[in-house]
Fold this protein.
Amino acid sequence: MARGRLRRWTVLAIRRLGWSRSPLCRPSDRVEGLLIAATLVAALVAIPVAIGMGRGAYAEGAARAAAQQAAGHWGTARLLESAPGSADPGQDAPNPVTTYARARWQGPNGSWSEGDVPVRAGTDAGSTVRVWVDAAGQVTRPPLTPSQLSDKGVATAITALMGLELGIVVCSLLARWSLDRRRLAAWGQEWERVAPRWSRKYH
């Protein structure tokens, strides 16, 4: 029973792809079948390509994070002014609001620097906050954590896959549109040759 269904499905798929010896099957039908097969293959190939791009983004981010870890360190900055905004974002706020405020911190060579640092909104002047200080003594973004690197790799892979699949679909639709135009033109030419014969036959 199962073999019979599989055979019927196989025959239908072959006919749908234009791989049939039927005299009604035209070259354009075979081209369309090849186009469908090529689209399916390209869609499958896009999956490992996107995964590779995600892994590449993860590896690049991990290397950058390792370099930041080696060159910088966590330090402490003291606020010279109160951070704007409210310290209480409200119950509906999913995360604390981050803003910038003037602060003073010590670099790796012992010198002091001043500048704007990211702090929680509403933090009072004189408070101390943790900041990431690079080798030049400047406050920068801290290295990405392993979970953030994983999220970046997954996001890159998903975005790449969506872009590749969209490009494949668009190219396939354009190719089928062009094929349909040629097919309609061929049908029109054939009808111009056949129509006079039918007219003479029924008159």
About this structure: The chain has two domains: 13-63+149-201, 74-133. Residues 4 and 10 are 10 Å apart (CA to CA). The first strand starts at residue 73 and ends at 79.
